[in-house]
Design a protein that fits this description.
Its EC number is 2.1.1.45. This is Thymidylate synthase. Its main location: cytoplasm. It is found in: Cytoplasm. Belongs to the thymidylate synthase family. Bacterial-type ThyA subfamily. Helix 1 packs across helix 8 (about 225-230) and helix 2 crosses helix 7 (about 185-200). This protein has 8 helices and 8 strands. The protein is about 30% helix and about 25% strand. It has a 6-stranded mixed beta sheet with strand order 1-2-6-5-4-3. A two-stranded antiparallel sheet has the order 7-8. The longest helix has 20 residues, at about 185-200. The chain has about 270 residues and is of the alpha+beta class. The structure holds 5,10-methenyl-6,7,8-trihydrofolic acid and ligand LAUPNLSC. 5,10-methenyl-6,7,8-trihydrofolic acid binds near residues 54 and 179.
Length: about 270
């Protein structure tokens, strides 16, 4: 994961000192791109231990169209707890927009699978989680926004596009805002996995995952962790085995994924900015 280390170093070297919504403060740059060839291994950071379990359950949760944390917490995943209201709701975030855009029964995932299968040269294969009509009002609480039908947080991984060439499926994501130490390792692994399962159900090999950023930042309380991580030597990437019998995107279950040869350095703790 040289790409990820290069990004960390780039922000340390060139980041602007910037205040932010959470009051934590960041070092930030605007505009950056990384590319991962998925045939070279599964892009999971090796210089700190990541929990693939949280990543898989979160992706399956998005694909179900679910926006209540109950499914996550039932499976021991707590990464969305801080933003949910007392009923566990997050408002119309990713899952809602992916499967039922703007509440108009537009199933972007179902539609895109069909297009990739039938018209792989299409240049219109995008999924948008971005929906200006559900933007939260930042001067009221997450719960109050949810009560008003707004999203608790506007999507960070805002839209993605697929591309087919040479029998390979590639995916490019635009992420408007990126917490490089905590969120980005999750985001890379999640979209790499999404690309692999979409490729499988459409009959292609996985190609590249391209990660394009807007405001990409290191929070001030993650700087020491990042320096520790950069002092570690990246190891060989793991691989992930996906049950080849699953042919429908909505049929995947947690047990269909097996991570192999993951040998990371120890976990590094960091506080999440709320
Ligand atoms: N500031 C911030 N950063 C994020 O990455 C982020 C948000 N907010 N809000 C919405 C979601 C939630 N995401 C999160 C939230 C927490 C962790 C986290 O605490 N990760 C720990 C433990 C992971 C686990 O329990 O599996 C880590 O060390 O990676 C990761 C992603 C990504 N998003
Ligand atoms: O998948 C995700 C979700 C969120 N983040 C980060 C990016 C920012 O640090 C915060 C969101 O705050 P905004 O003020 O809405 O930009 O969460 C991420 O990296 N990945």
């Amino acid at each position: 994961m040289k790409q990820y280390h290069d990004l960390l170093q780039h922000i340390l070297d060139h980041g602007n000192t910037k205040e932010d919504r959470t009051g934590t403060g960041t070092k930030s740059v605007f505009g950056y791109q990384m590319r991962f060839d998925l045939s070279e291994g599964f892009p999971m950071v090796t210089t700190k231990k990541l929990h693939l379990k949280s990543i898989i359950y979160e992706l399956l949760w998005f694909l179900k169209g679910d926006t209540n944390i109950k499914y996550l917490t039932d499976n021991g995943v707590r990464i969305w707890n801080e933003w949910a209201n007392e009923d566990g709701d997050l408002g119309p975030i990713y899952g809602h927009q992916w499967r039922n855009w703007n509440g108009e029964e537009i199933d972007q995932i179902k539609d895109i699978i069909e297009t990739i299968k039938k018209n792989p040269d299409s240049r219109r294969m995008l999924v948008s989680a971005w929906n200006p009509s559900v933007m939260p009002n930042t001067s009221v609480s997450f719960a109050e926004n949810v009560a008003n039908g707004k999203a608790a947080l506007p999507p960070c991984h805002a839209f993605f596009q697929f591309y087919v060439a040479n029998n390979k499926l590639s995916c490019q994501l635009y992420q408007r805002s990126a917490d490089v130490f905590l969120g980005v390792p999750f985001n890379i692994a999640s979209y790499a996995l999404l690309t692999m399962i979409v490729a499988q159900v459409c009959g292609y090999e996985p190609g590249d995952f391209i990660h394009t950023f807007g405001d990409v930042h290191i929070y001030n309380n993650h700087i020491e962790q990042v320096k520790l991580q950069l002092s570690r030597e990246p190891r060989t990437l793991p691989t992930i085995k996906i049950n080849p019998d699953v042919k429908e995107i909505f049929d995947f279950e947690f047990e269909d994924f097996t991570l192999e040869n993951y040998d990371p350095h120890p976990h590094i703790k960091g506080a999440v900015a709320i």
